Each structure stands twice: as structure tokens, then as C-alpha cells.
Amino acid sequence: MKSFKFLAMSIMLSSLLAFAAACGNGEDAATGENGTEDTEQTEETGEESAELEGEIGIDGSSTVAPIGEAVSEEFSIDHPKVQAPIGISGTGGGFEKFTAGETDISEASRPIKDEEKTAAADNGIEFTEFKVAFDGLSVVVNKENDFIDQLTVEDLKKLWVEDGSTKKWSDINPDWPAEEVKFFSPGADSGTYDYFNEVILEDAAIVKAATLSEDDNTLVKGVTGDKNSIGYFGYAYYLENKDNLKVVPIVNEAGEAVEPTNETVESGDYNPLSRPLFIYVNNASIKDKEHVAEYVKFYLENAGTLAEEVGYVSLPEEEYTTQLETLEGLK
């Protein structure tokens, strides 16, 4: 009996030890598998981080900035070790840095000028232009303005070109108030100013009384703060503040007064104040910095959607596809 009890206890202990060993082996095995998976995942994550880590120099247009900011924010979700802050020194200021080799990407609300191309060449900078969206330069007045329902290009010239006089609304239309007009314009380094100069001022001096600022928010505040004010800036800034501003329809080349909308900007009916928006990319940055190449790819893949989200108008999809092919050829 004693021997049976001993045997039974031995069998029980052996079983328990075997079970414990099996559990231990299972845990070790599981740990080993999980450990292997964790190691592989860590290695993969490490590889991704190594591939996409670094800083991207971006500067330029305040008009294009909302698109760039949206791109950088979305890109950072998948690539948190890539820093891509958006500088805003105006299109001209951005090109000055870009052509000196100080930035990888320049955001612009106008095409690059010949003298800027020369500066880039002198510094050995080769670049590629990419269109990212359309903008409708919006002319706005104070919400309390109840007498303007449209303006012609000639009206805009009379208002904005310096002629030595104090501008009053009645100078444009005798039925309008004899009140002094307050002007708010983007600064001379802005691509928006350059575009307005090209199609409205035609290189004449802008009215001396105008308040100029590279910050579009300053212009919005100026127009909302004075009932006799007028200003202009990108379509996105109008949309963002449309509850506090009145947009002015502009008479186009067909003689129709047209308000800027997604449809009229894309169709070209809102002329002559519709325009494309750009980024310019240093070719060497594409070839030598993978994080820059991937960022530009992401920019072109998502520019249409993000441009619409921040208030601009996307290009036709085939244009983005063609530009992505161009980008691949630069790598």
C-alpha cells in the first residue's frame, strides 16, 4: 500500500512537472516567436525611420502655405522623424532662398522669373516646376459695403494705380459715396502681388495709401475693420473669412460679372484673376535625399484633395499623374 501511494504520488508529481515544463516551453516558444516578431517589427520600423528621417527646407508663398501645411501635417503621421516646417517669406523671398540653395522646395503663386532662373543657374541649382492647384485671386470689401455689386478690370486699375490723388469711391462711380478708400494689399515679395501687378497694375506703382503685408490674415483684419476698405488675396483666405467679408464679382473678358468659386476658377470663367499655384523642387534634393523625394511624391499624390480641403481648386487628375511620372524620372 505504501509502495502504491508512493508510486501514485510519483506519477502525479511527474505529471505536474511535465505539465509545468510544457507550459514553460510553450511560454518560451511564444516568447521566442513574439520576440522574433517584435525584433522583426523593430528592425522594420528602424529601417523605415532610417529611410525617412531628416529635415526638409520649405519656404515661399503665403497663398500656397495652407496646402503645404496640410501636406506636412498628413505626411508626419506616417513619417514622424521627417521635419517639414513651412516658411512664409512670400514667393519672391522663397525664390531668393531657393536659388541660393538654402531650401529644398519653394512654394510659389507665380512662375519663376528669368532673373531667378539665372540666379539658380549661377549657384548650380537645377530645379523642376510642379503645379499643385488653382487659385482665384479674390477682391473683397467690407461686409457693410452695400453699393458695390461688381468691378471691371478698369475699375480696379483706377482704384489701385497711384496717380497722386486721394482715392474716393465716387471717383469710380459718381453714385458711390465720396468717402476715402482704404487699401490692403499683399507685400511686394508676394506672388499674389506679382500676379495682381501683372494683370491689373501692369507694372504701374500701386497706390501709396495701401497697407502692404506678407501676412494675409493682416489684410483680412484690415478689410473687416473699415467699412471703406478694399483688399485682395488668395481664394482660400476669402473662404476662411467669407462670413466677415464681401467678395466682389469681376467682369471677365466675355463681359460677365463672375464671382470666384471652385467651378469658375477651374473653368477659367473667373478671369483674369484665376491662376495656377506651384512648388519648385531642387533636383539634387530629389536624388540625394530620399525623405525629400517621398515628401514630394506624397505632395503630388494628395495635393488635389488637400487643396480642396483648404479652399483651393484641384488640377485634373491626369495632371498629377503626369507630374508623378516626371518626379520618378528625377530619382
From TrEMBL:
It is a lipid-anchor. Pfam families: PBP_like_2. It is found in: Cell membrane. Residues 1-20 form the signal peptide. SUPFAM superfamilies: Periplasmic binding protein-like II (SSF53850). Residues 28-53 are annotated as: Disordered. Keywords: Cell membrane, Lipoprotein, Membrane, Palmitate, Phosphate transport, Signal, Transport. Residues 35-53 have a biased composition (Acidic residues). Residues 47-300 form the PBP domain. NCBIfam families: ptsS_2 (TIGR02136). Part of the ABC transporter complex PstSACB involved in phosphate import. The complex is composed of two ATP-binding proteins (PstB), two transmembrane proteins (PstC and PstA) and a solute-binding protein (PstS). Belongs to the PstS family. This is Phosphate-binding protein.
